[in-house]
Design a protein that fits this description.
Layout: H1 12-20, E1 25-29, H2 36-44, E2 48-54, H3 57-67, E3 74-78, H4 84-93, E4 106-110, H5 117-121, H6 147-153, H7 156-167, H8 172-180
Parallel strand pairs: 1-2, 1-4, 2-3
Helix pairs in contact: 1-2, 7-8
């Protein structure tokens, strides 16, 4: 990690207000990031615990550091949305050392969707066009497939399908064609 993972949570007041009315229990923060929202919730509500989950290993490490002062009231794990049910299940059932939610009702879920400034601001992450850096864009650096692999190895039709489906871009076919003939440098 080249610098601290610092990210200001959006709608901080609104998030705290949202959880002000829930009963005591477990909040599952499915996009823990640097732990900003979780810290606000834990500060405001001593009767809540938080299970934080994030796909980004750098975010997980930052959240663990940031939330360490809350001790056993918080647990942070790396995982994607497809793993949320399993991760929550381990914590609620108290399997092994994963017990932040043991015996506690889940009283809320939080999703702060999108990329965060540490992902965009670090050239080595490969998310931004502001920097001269390899095109990477992996939220989970354990995955082998990078955005550069997709752009440089997919045929034009498959590339256009990816751009249309995930980028919701109506000019996907034209963009893919320009990339493949080399007019667009990636």
């Amino acid at each position: 990690m080249s610098e601290a993972f610092e990210h200001l949570p959006v709608m901080a007041r609104e998030v705290v207000e949202c959880f002000a009315q829930v009963p005591a229990g477990l909040v599952v923060d499915c996009t823990i990031g640097g732990g900003g929202h979780a810290a606000l919730i834990l500060d405001a509500r001593p009767d809540l615990t938080v299970l934080g989950i994030d796909r980004d290993i750098e975010a997980v490490a930052a959240a663990r550091r940031h939330l360490a002062r809350f001790g056993s009231r918080v647990a942070v794990e790396q995982g994607g949305f497809e793993e949320v049910a399993d991760i929550v299940g381990r914590h609620v059932s108290g399997g092994g050392s994963a017990a932040v939610g043991r015996g506690r009702a889940i009283v809320g879920f939080l999703f702060d969707l999108g990329v965060s400034s540490p992902q965009l601001d670090r050239p080595e992450r490969g998310f931004s066009y502001r920097f001269e850096a390899p095109l990477d864009m992996r939220m989970d650096s354990r995955q082998s497939l990078t955005a550069a692999d997709v752009v440089n190895t997919y045929d034009e039709r498959d590339l256009a399908d990816v751009i249309a489906r995930y980028g919701e871009e109506r000019f996907a076919r034209r963009i893919a064609a320009e990339i493949k003939i080399g007019r667009v440098h990636v």
